[in-house]
């Protein structure tokens, strides 16, 4: 079955870049997503990448996809204290009839002022 | 920006009681989902719904669970006879016109079973 893994914690200093990593096992993944969860809030869609892309940039966010190694990363440039949250990697596969997201464990990002 | 809304934000229920969690998906979205997140665990898929019927469900979604779209705006999750292990955060999501479109989530309902 599908398995999506992330490291649990990451601490960075304000102004530095953050890199949150994710690995997945399903080679038929079509879309890969990053969601942000602030305390007490829901899952906010940050960005997503189609599996035939290597990179996607959206303002301070850069997503890198290494499909050969099944590795996805999210880079946040100039990290701010408001970026402190849990970041979830999620994938959706190309299996017929499958339309559900498989989530990673989430990485808790702490930004130190 | 349109958003998915869920009510209530917190539901406390006695074990064995029925509970209904409510969601209003984004208005022009056609696919609807329920996920849950037990404290400290991954977000898990429960069920997807399209064209007024379940399109996919997970092993978690047993006979105690049901979903309904009672009118043109609401999407509900019913748990018939709640168990302690049903305590979790329940998230509703919707996507536009295909399951590959990004899924947008509500803020969740925290369900506490006593």
How does this model look, in words?
- The complex is a heterodimer of chains A (about 110) and B (about 110).
- Chain A has about 110 residues and is an all-beta fold.
- Chain A has no helices and 11 strands.
- Helices cover about 0% and strands about 60% of the residues of chain A.
- In chain A, strand 4 and strand 5 form a beta hairpin.
- Chain A is globular and about 40 Å long.
- Chain A starts with a strand and ends with a strand.
- By secondary structure, chain B is mostly beta strands.
- In chain B, about 0% of the residues lie in helices and about 50% in strands.
- Chain B has strands spanning about 5, 10-15, 20-25, 30-35, 45-50, 55, 65-70, 75-80, 90-95, 105, 110-114.
- In chain B, strands 2, 4, 5, 6, 9, 10 and 11 form a 7-stranded mixed sheet that branches. Chain B has a 4-stranded antiparallel sheet with strand order 1-3-8-7, with no helix packed on it.
- In chain B, strand 7 (about 65-70) and strand 8 (about 75-80) form a beta hairpin.
- Chain B is globular.
- The interface of A and B includes residues 30, 88 and 102 of A.
């Amino acid at each position: 079955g599908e398995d999506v893994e992330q490291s649990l914690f990451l601490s960075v200093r304000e102004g530095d870049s953050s890199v949150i990593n994710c690995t997945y096992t399903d080679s038929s993944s079509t879309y890969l997503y990053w969601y942000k969860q602030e305390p007490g809030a829901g899952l906010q869609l940050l960005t997503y990448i189609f599996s035939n892309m290597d990179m996607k940039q959206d303002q301070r966010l850069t997503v890198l996809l290494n499909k050969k190694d099944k590795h996805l990363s999210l880079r946040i440039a100039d990290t701010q204290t408001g970026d402190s949250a849990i970041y979830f990697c999620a994938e959706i596969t190309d299996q017929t009839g499958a339309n559900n997201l498989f989530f990673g464990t989430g990485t808790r990002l702490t930004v130190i002022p | 920006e349109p958003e998915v809304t869920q009510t209530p934000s917190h539901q406390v229920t006695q074990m064995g009681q029925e509970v209904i969690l409510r969601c209003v998906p984004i208005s022009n979205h056609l696919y609807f989902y329920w996920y849950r997140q037990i404290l400290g665990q991954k977000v898990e898929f429960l069920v997807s719904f399209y064209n007024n019927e379940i399109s996919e469900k997970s092993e978690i979604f047993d006979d105690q669970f049901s979903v309904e779209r009672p009118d043109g705006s609401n999407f509900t999750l019913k748990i018939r006879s709640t168990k302690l292990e049903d305590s979790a955060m329940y998230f509703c999501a919707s996507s536009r016109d295909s399951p590959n479109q990004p899924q947008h989530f509500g803020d969740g309902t925290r369900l506490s079973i006593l």
